[in-house]
């Protein structure tokens, strides 16, 4: 079971979730429109066939279903190894994130970037990015849960890959013209915040168990 200080995990979760809320509020107000449009148009102008093909592959491999399946698979392996609480945490955080970002999209109802800069035709709500939120949630919770049991090399490899993958998935959403920059930033903060919150809850479970269990 995880032995990290739940207070620290909770503080990080609060900061990330507060950042997500702030980003969504500011983005919804239109205050970030200039930055969002500038980034979207600038990336659209710099597209190249090989880079676009790579972005399409990454965005497909990093879609919301794939992130949910990662959590379920990793959670199943942890449960099979006798770490049921950790497995449940890893499996449930991406699923919870899916529910949260879907509800937020419906409430905020922000329009996607215009069709003329979209490589993929996407018309549903834009804020926050589901791809970014799910990738951040699935990989962050996996790193946090497995960190105490990994050697230094394993930690570096897993954390490094997680950061690169989360960043790549989010970037492709902007590059392909299907999300604004603020959508992705809010998605990253939301997913990571929910991951830290889930592990914070997990970290207090041993203290609540009766002695001898």
TrEMBL record:
Keywords carried by this UniProt record: Membrane, Signal, Transmembrane, Transmembrane helix
Signal peptide (residue range): 1-33
Record Gene3D superfamilies: Phosphatidic acid phosphatase type 2/haloperoxidase
SUPFAM superfamilies (UniProt xref): Acid phosphatase/Vanadium-dependent haloperoxidase
Ranges where the Phosphatidic acid phosphatase type 2/haloperoxidase domain occurs: 88-199
Transmembrane segments: 57-80, 87-108, 128-147, 156-176, 188-207
Superkingdom of origin: Bacteria
Listed name of the protein: Phosphatidic acid phosphatase type 2/haloperoxidase domain-containing protein
Species: Pseudonocardia saturnea
């Amino acid at each position: 079971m995880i032995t990290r200080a739940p207070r620290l995990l909770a503080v990080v979760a609060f900061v990330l979730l507060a950042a997500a809320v702030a980003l969504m509020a500011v983005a919804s107000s239109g205050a970030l429109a200039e930055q969002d449009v500038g980034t979207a148009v600038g990336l659209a102008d710099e597209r190249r066939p090989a880079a676009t093909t790579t972005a399409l592959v990454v965005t497909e491999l990093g879609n919301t279903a794939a992130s949910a399946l990662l959590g379920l698979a990793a959670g199943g392996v942890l449960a099979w190894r006798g770490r049921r609480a950790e497995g449940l945490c890893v499996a449930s955080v991406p699923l919870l994130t899916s529910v949260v970002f879907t509800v937020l999209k419906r409430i905020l109802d922000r329009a996607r970037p215009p069709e003329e800069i979209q490589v993929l035709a996407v018309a549903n709500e834009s804020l926050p990015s589901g791809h970014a939120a799910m990738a951040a949630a699935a990989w962050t919770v996996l790193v946090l849960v497995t960190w105490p049991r990994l050697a230094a090399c394993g930690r570096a490899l897993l954390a490094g890959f997680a950061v690169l993958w989360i960043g790549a998935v989010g970037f492709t959403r902007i590059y392909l013209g299907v999300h604004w920059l603020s959508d992705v930033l809010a998605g990253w903060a939301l997913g990571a915040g929910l991951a830290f919150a889930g592990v914070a809850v997990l970290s207090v479970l041993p203290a609540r168990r009766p002695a001898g269990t």
